[in-house]
UniProtKB/TrEMBL annotation:
Protein species of origin: Stappia indica
GO-annotated cellular components: plasma membrane
GO BP field: D-alanine transmembrane transport; L-alanine transport; L-isoleucine import across plasma membrane; L-valine import across plasma membrane
Keywords for the protein's UniProt record, in alphabetical order: ATP-binding, Nucleotide-binding, Transport
Transport in keyword set: yes
Pfam families: ABC_tran (PF00005)
Name of the featured protein: Amino acid/amide ABC transporter ATP-binding protein 1, HAAT family
Gene3D superfamilies on file: P-loop containing nucleotide triphosphate hydrolases (3.40.50.300)
GO molecular function: ATP binding; ATP hydrolysis activity; L-isoleucine transmembrane transporter activity; L-phenylalanine transmembrane transporter activity; L-valine transmembrane transporter activity
Annotated ranges, domain ABC transporter: 6-247
Amino acid sequence: MSEILLEARNLQISFGGVVAADDVSLAIERGKNLAIIGPNGAGKTTFLNICTGWIKPTKGKVYFEGQDVTPLPPRRIVRLGVARAFQIPQLFTEHTALENLLISAAAREQLRHPLQDLHRIRERAEMLHLLDMVGCADVADRLVVELSEGQRKLVDIAVALALRPKLLLMDEPTSGVASSEKFKIMEILVKALAEAKVTSVFVEHDMGIVSRYADEVAVWAAGRLQMQGSPEEILRHPDVIRDVIGEAV
Ligand SMILES: Nc1ncnc2c1ncn2[C@@H]1O[C@H](COP(=O)(O)OP(=O)(O)OP(=O)(O)O)[C@@H](O)[C@H]1O
């Protein structure tokens, strides 16, 4: 039986004259990979920012595992199990890949001075396993600044998984990566999410990626959720082809 992990109800927010969320209601099922598609400025990132508590809606609510998380600060929402990965990986570039995961583990365990106490963090084996899950075990001791963009994306996902999330929200996980590498990264990512039993939402502009890796697709336009359904149904819809994709996938 399907179970709702996160539910947004009637979200509303405007920035000046721009309506970035206009009565948005969306339910995310546990265990699914949901893709969000839509033109630039449609409000996709705003939706993720509301779910993580970074932006507070003027109306509407977000429920995570049935709990109203709308008024909570972002760090409390992270602790409940909602993690975020960004279009540009948010990593400490002068630290190694493993150290970045250890810092994440330290944040999870609420250690006060993670950077000073890195060698004392006990979760080393768990972090090495996460790096292995994203195919980056061999670069564990390399500085992030030396890694390829693709490796940084994967390490960034491992850093998010180090928080032991139940839900991972991602803004264009494969952007900035050569198209030949995109599918390889998504393949690794989707496998790692399944192994860690993490539900995901990812904003994506590449319809090839959406059709292959999303279980469900939500279409955004002008701050509104226009439709939601299976990739087969959504990517063939004439309105989606006309307004979002430009041509059939
Ligand atoms: N903090 C903010 N202050 C002012 N305007 C904002 C803010 N955040 C978003 N907006 C505006 O709200 C609208 C929706 O932005 P958002 O980033 O959510 O769109 P998007 O669908 O993610 O776009 P893209 O695909 O280009 O990333 C845009 O017009 C944007 O300029």
